[in-house]
Amino acid sequence: MQRLIYRISQHLVFTPPDSRTCPPRRTDLDWLRIMLFGLLISHHIGMFYVDAWGWHAKSQYSVVWLDKLLLLVEPWRMPAIWLISGVAIRFVLAKVSPVRFVMLRTYHLLLPLLFGVLVIVPPQLYIEMTAKGEIALNYWQFLQAFFSDAVTGKEGTFSNYPHGIWPHIDVNHLWYLRSLWYYSLALVCMLPILNSSWLESMRRRLVLGNGAIAVGILAMPVIAIEFLWAEAPSRYPIGLLFLLYGYMLGWQPQAWQKIADHVKHFCVAYGLCWLALVIFYQYVWLDARAESIIPTWVQLVGNLLYGSCRLLGVLMMLGFAQTVFTSKRCQNSRWLTYGVDAVYPFYILHQTIILVAGFYLTQLNLGIAVESSLLVLVTITGCFVGYELVKRVDILRPCFGLKMQGQYSMVSQKVGYTCSACLLLPLIWRLI
């Protein structure tokens, strides 16, 4: 049956045409993915001290220049993660049928999402509401209200937080898992187009043509999204776009070689673009945002600079990864294996640790140097300790995106998958 499904999927162009020539695993992208999630954690620690940008809770201290520093990585950090996700999907679809891919994706993404929104995220809402003075409950009392109000549908304590998967139960920083599941389903539906011969021909022409023209063509959809989604979060369409870029360009060796050859040019171009963005942000955008209506020309220039920084930053980091992380030492490093497995647990745990630790640390009046140093130490230590615990408890591993290690009978495996499916059905119903 599996062979039949695979042959049918090949006939319908659901399987990549180059699936029989699967290249070796891209360890440079593994290293870059680890680095990008590390930057994500650093970014969220920084958000605790940036006064100009909203977040769930804030320190009593602020750093006036930190928002400009965070802008160095903010435009391209998530797009680069999405592009790597697209490359990974192409590798997976070369080995399994689309049906099995959807099943695996649902299991590996939605179990961590369900566990996260019910266990990991609630402390973030508790800290946010406590910091705003909206509640005066201990955490146990908060949990009772949190789940009872969700079941009964009452607004009550959480009237200011009505949106989410369920009433006031939202994804917070786990939006990446939810979106990756959505985008995986969308990509499967688009496979006949993505794997078509005419699109393959266009990709080859783009890769083999003039590099500057290719970058311009790739930049146009990015900048267009920034314009079209000026009044709404553009991170969702940008995520899907870069996921598709990763899928379409992931197996083009000429494209990777061109990116590596021109990494210095990308670094210079990004540096100039970032400098222009920071100057514009500091002397134009902040003043315009203080007004009731932002002038159209300010939005246009801001979107153009920010969209350009997105693509140039991604290309710069892809070239950087090929330059730095392709040595045999990097490919065979035990830290690579550790980091690949630790990425999801670190990602799932980090924001809750930052908010809880930061909220209580800032009340001690330690000064910004001591407080921020302790927050970094507690966050890193908490993530490592959490991961070391999770990887040793087999039943917790799927809740953090890890495969179970134990040897189980076929009956036990079927029971486990059946129970997981029953748990996920209400979530899938809400997401759809």
TrEMBL record:
Any single Pfam family the record assigns to this protein: Acyl_transf_3
Annotated keywords: Acyltransferase, Membrane, Transferase, Transmembrane, Transmembrane helix
Origin superkingdom: Bacteria
Chain ranges passing through the membrane: 34-56, 76-94, 106-127, 180-199, 206-229, 235-251, 263-284, 304-321, 342-362, 368-390
Residues covered by the Acyltransferase domain: 28-387
InterPro entries: Acyl_transf_3_dom (IPR002656), Glucan_succinyl_AcylTrfase (IPR050623)
Molecular function, one GO term: acyltransferase activity, transferring groups other than amino-acyl groups
Name this polypeptide is given: Acyltransferase
